[in-house]
Every structure is written in structure tokens, then in C-alpha cells.
Amino acid sequence: MKIAIFPGDGIGPEVTAQARRVLERLDLPRLVLFEGDVGGIAYRRHGHPLPAETLEMARASDAVLFGAVGDPSCDDLPRAMRPEQAILGLRAELGLFANLRPATLFDGLEELSTLRPEIARQIDMLIVRELNGDVYFGDKGIRTLENGDREGWDMMSYSTGEVRRIAELAFRAAQGRRGKVTSVDKANVLETSQVWRDTVIEVAASFPDVTLDHMYVDNAAMQLVRNPGAFDVVVTGNLFGDILSDQASVCVGSIGLLASASLGERQTEFGTFGLYEPIHGSAPDIAGKGWANPMAAILSVAMLLRHSLGREADASRVEAAVAKALADGVRGRDIGGSAGCTEIGDAVIERL
Ligand code: NAI
Ligand code: MG
For substrate, which residues are the binding ones (predicted)? Predict the structure, then answer.
């Protein structure tokens, strides 16, 4: 089991150091860890935010654990040399087409949610967002009309093949959860959504143990805050997923607690190749202070164990240890406590 760790910038190295300790503590057979440079640090050391040797390391691994990239001292560099290009480049080069973001409210953290506690307590969902298609990647442009108005356009499209692979991934994820998929589209007005919906229905036939329902995106946005308990796995396109996943994250609270996975098609000896990272950035405002909450990075390790290494029991163990630490009152500064980064790492490891 080869894991490439890319700590990156700002608090990235601080939180991934704790995540690495957790991974090492699990005593996985034949675990090999190696580290590579990404982001601003990679630019300074190698002249590029995603050096060729880092990319090679990712390709040679079974999974990547990513910290965060972003460095204010690189603000004046041309766009292609900015630290953020490292994550975009990795997603493109590694064919990572699915973004998974779990949203779960840990016991006792209801006060962090923007929702009423009795509603917040119901949240336990996984948003599966398609990453490589949709309106972000279609033909686009700006033209001047005869009357002098400017007009912008972006073409939205999904092919059956693109929908099929993300839908299959969502159904497989639902099999390991509560067995329900909600497909979100806008099939009442968009042809793209009609193809999306037809294809998801076709894929559902191969997963008789999973129930499927469909929801228009406007209604989904409403139900997410009205009745979040109705969702288990939500599968949707790039644009709708971008919006709904951010909405779901404020429903559960701190940015320091949320993990994500980006999965591709490559199957390894152990599972699906993927890249795992906290959803937060490099947090330059607190970098180097030892205040960063490493729980999101640690929960990214749990996702890595589940999806790329086929180690569900270890994944659950890590998640339970984080939940226990929170229940015991271990709180970072981001959630009203005073525990530091290493202290939180210690607390989770003690409870593994
Ligand atoms: P951010 O997520 O880095 O920080 C937002 C706020 O949340 C800050 O006040 C920060 O101190 C706090 N915060 C974030 N993570 C935390 C943690 N683990 N524990 C405690 N507090 C935490 O977002 P921001 O400030 O918009 O971006 C900073 C840099 O990160 C930028 O260069 C941005 O481009 C980059 N970024 C990189 C991402 C990635 O690597 N995938 C994702 C998002 C932003
Ligand atoms: Mg977003």
C-alpha cells in the first residue's frame, strides 16, 4: 500500500503531520509512505507548483493524501505558476472525476450548525459531485451583439458515459451506507438533465439493493435545510454539486472538520485510486501558530482507508476516534475550544 503525502502550504504540513501519525498508528500491512512538494513550496524549491516528480509519485501510489495549497507571497505570479494550480493539475492529470464530500454532524456540535439543533442532528449524507464535465468545461465565450450589448455563454452538456461512471460510483457508495441515492437535476427545463436522469435510472437497474429518487435542484436546496435527514447519498453534476456541497458544509459547522475525496477510474490492488484532502485551504492567517484543527485531515485518512485501501473497519475506527474526542470535549479554536494541532492529534490517537 503506497500512499503519497503532499502537505503543501500554510497549515497543510501541520494538519497532514497529524493525519500521517494516525495512519502510521493503524499498523497497516506493507504500508509505504512518501512525501512530495506541491503548491508554493514546490514553486520555490522546483520552479513549478506541480513538479513532474510529484506527479510521478502520485501516479505510482495507491492514494494521495493532500494538505492544502495557497501562499499569499505567490499572488503576483502568473496564473499557471500559482500554488492552486497544483490541485487543479492533479485532478486533471489523474482523471479524478468524482468529488465526495461527507456531511455529518458530530454529537454535541449542534451549536456549530446554521440549522436548528433538532434538524441539524439528522444530517448524515454524502454528496457525490461530478468534476470533469458540465457547464464549466463546455464551449464558452463573450461576444458583442449588434446593439452593442455584450453577451456571455457557457454550454452545458453531459454524455451518457460521463453520467454512468459517476452514477455507478454513487450507487456503490450507497451500498456501504443507508442504501439510498438521490439524483439532483433540473430535468423539467434542461436537456442535459434529461440525459442525466435517464442514465441514472438505467444504472439503478444494476443496484436493486439501493433505492433511487430524483429531485430538482431548487427543491434539493430547500430540502437540504428543511429536512436534511431525507438524504443519504446525493449524486449531481458539477455546477449543482459545487453549490449544494458548500451549502451542506455550513449546515454541519466548522471547516476544520470536513474531509473530501476525489476519485478516478483507476482500480488498484486494494480499491479505487483517489486523492483525499480537507476542504479547507492553507489558512495563512493561522499558519505556524499550531492552532490548526487537524480533524478534517484525519477524517480524510478515514476516507482514504475506505475508498482506496478497502479497509472499512479501520476507516470506521478513525471516525469513531474523532467522534469520541469531540464528545469528550476536545475542541480546536475553530470550534470554540483551545486545543492545538498536536494536542488534537494526540487525543485522536489515544482513542483509536
Ligand atoms: P481557508 O480554508 O484557508 O481559511 C478560511 C478560514 O478558516 C481562515 O480564517 C482559517 O484560519 C480558518 N481555517 C481553515 N482551516 C482551518 C483549520 N483546519 N483549523 C482552524 N481554522 C481553519 O480559506 P481561504 O482563507 O479562503 O484561503 C486561503 C488559501 O488557501 C488561498 O490561497 C486559497 O486559494 C487556498 N485554498 C486552497 C484549497 C486547497 O488546497 N484545496 C481550498 C481552499 C482554499
Ligand atoms: Mg465551492
Answer: 91, 101, 129, 218
Q: Report the side by side order of strands in the sheet with 180-185.
A: 32-35, 2-8, 63-68, 272-278, 259-267, 98-104, 124-130, 233-236, 180-185, 211-216
Locate 124 and state its grid cell.
448524515
**192 phi and psi, to 5 degrees?**
-55, -45
pTM: predicted TM-score of the whole model, two decimal places: 0.93
* pLDDT per position as a tens digit, 96-152: 999 999 999 998 888 888 899 999 999 999 999 999 999 988 999 999 999 999 999
Equal CATH topology for 1-99+267-352 and 110-253: yes
Phi, psi of 231 (to 5 degrees): -100, 140
Q: What is the pLDDT of residues 263-305, one digit of tens each?
A: 999 999 999 999 999 999 999 999 999 999 999 999 999 999 9
State pLDDT tens for residues 328-350: 999 999 888 999 999 999 999 99
Please give the class, per CATH, of domain 1-99+267-352: alpha beta
Q: Could you tell me which CATH class the domain 110-253 is placed in?
A: alpha beta
**Catalytic residue check, 242:** yes
Quick one: pLDDT at residue 223? 96
Q: Give distance in angstroms: CA of 280 to centre of ligand 1.
A: 5
Is 29 annotated in some ligand binding site? no
Q: Which of 107, 198, 218, 328 is catalytic?
A: 218
Ligand 1 contacts CB of residue 87 (under 6 A): yes
Closest residue CA from atom 40 of ligand 1: 68
Question: Which ligand has an atom closest to residue 255 CA?
Answer: 1
Q: From the candidates 2, 136, 180, 346, which is the catalytic residue?
A: 136
Eight-state DSSP code of residue 339: B
Domain-wise residue ranges, the chain: 1-99+267-352, 110-253
Sequence-distant (≥ 6) Cβ neighbours of residue 119 within 8 angstroms? 225, 226, 227, 228, 229
Query: Is 243 assigned to a binding site?
Result: no
284 known ligand binder:
yes
- Active-site residue flag, 213: no
